Amino acid sequence: MFGIVLIVTIVIWGITSGILWLNLNNQQIQDKTWLSSTPEAQGMDAVILEQVIGDIKQQNIAIDSLLIIRHGYIVLENYPNLEEYLSHTMSNQDNMHSLYSVTKSFTSALIGIAIKEGYIDNTSLKVVDFFPDKMIENLDSRKKNMTLNHLLTMTSGFEWDEWTGDSAIKMLRSANPVEYMLNLPMKYDPGTVLVYCTGASHLLSAIIQKATGYTTLEFARKYLFKPLRVSEAQWTYDQQNVYHGGHGLSLTTRDIAKLGYLYLNHGIWNGKQIVSKDWVNKSTQTYNFFQENNGYGYYWWTLPQSNVYYASGLYGQRIYVAPDYDLVVVFTANIPNELVVDHLFNSILISITSK
């Protein structure tokens, strides 16, 4: 459930100075596939990008894939361990990569879509009201006042320790993770303290299933994956058939990039509003800070000082969106020190020569 599935996309490759530049002559972006371009044509320095790939290989950084999209064109698509991927690829399933907590950003998008489509009224709704059939333990006034907004901003108030404790493991190993979350004692008033909580996103997945009558994967396929022409998706679920809202989604690198490009374009794909512009704006605002410069929106991390936001998953999974540069960058990886990926992204920003 937590393992990484290595990916490779079979295409026609052109090799320039050691970098695999993609050669395609297909339809417009947002339709069947992406158009490609040289970095120079899109205002990026190919020499610097070549150095980024060189550093990854020379330093044996475990980057599984790197995809850069500028002005709607793929300017670089690289799989540093291509031969290894080819030796292990047996089917389309092997082309997908686990997103880990990048899954949360997809869950957030699905909540926005559920509101847009009329399944959920707004984010001010009380969490416990979605579960009238549950005998909820530790039900005090704080828990009664917890809303969807609190879940989305990681300010639920639950007693939870994601980083140094075993809260997530206990939840996932429980017989009924949704009930486990609902029964947790409260530690703070909702909306007052930022505590990263994977369990909160699992509750949102359960709410999607309650409100829509679809499983979270079915809902995603109908309202998100199908319009975006996502080739294939896999998503894990708990013992009660509730799809994991905080992890467990696997997609190809190109399909991962589609969420970033959708948000870059204010929720529009192929001329259709998939996610409302208002939801994109709310999702990528900074409501709280985990660190001095690292903010948090609706399951998107934010860098307000540089107007960048990103989806982040364990071991270096990233979707960076930089609206000022019309740029989307996707990494899939298996890196214990995720700061390495952030440094690589900064090197990619340095490669930009013109807006």
What does this structure look like?
This protein has 355 residues and is of the alpha+beta class. The protein has helices at residues 46-58, 82-88, 102-116, 141-144, 148-152, 167-173, 177-183, 198-212, 216-225, 253-264, 277-283, 339-350, and strands spanning 13-16, 19-22, 35-36, 63-70, 73-78, 97-98, 234-235, 249-251, 268-269, 272-273, 288-289, 295-296, 301-303, 308-313, 317-322, 327-333. Helix 3 packs parallel to helix 8 and helix 7 (177-183) crosses helix 8. It is globular and about 60 Å long.
Strand segment count: 16
**Helix and strand succession?**
EEEHEEHEHHHHHHHEEHEEHEEEEEEH
Helix content: 25-40%
Largest sheet: 9 strands, mixed
Shape, per Cα inertia axes: globular
Q: What structural class is derived from the secondary structure elements?
A: alpha+beta
Q: How are strands sequenced across the largest beta sheet?
A: 3-5-4-16-15-14-13-12-11
The residue-averaged pLDDT reads 88
Cα radius of gyration in angstroms: 20 Å
- First-last Cα distance: 41 Å
Number of discrete helical segments = 12
Q: What is the percentage of strand-forming residues?
A: 15-25%
Point out poorly predicted stretches: 1-32, 85-94
Write the layout of secondary structure elements.
Layout: E1 13-16, E2 19-22, E3 35-36, H1 46-58, E4 63-70, E5 73-78, H2 82-88, E6 97-98, H3 102-116, H4 141-144, H5 148-152, H6 167-173, H7 177-183, H8 198-212, H9 216-225, E7 234-235, E8 249-251, H10 253-264, E9 268-269, E10 272-273, H11 277-283, E11 288-289, E12 295-296, E13 301-303, E14 308-313, E15 317-322, E16 327-333, H12 339-350
Parallel strand pairs: 3-5
Antiparallel strand pairs: 1-2, 4-5, 4-16, 6-8, 7-8, 9-10, 11-12, 12-13, 13-14, 14-15, 15-16
Helix pairs in contact: 3-8, 7-8
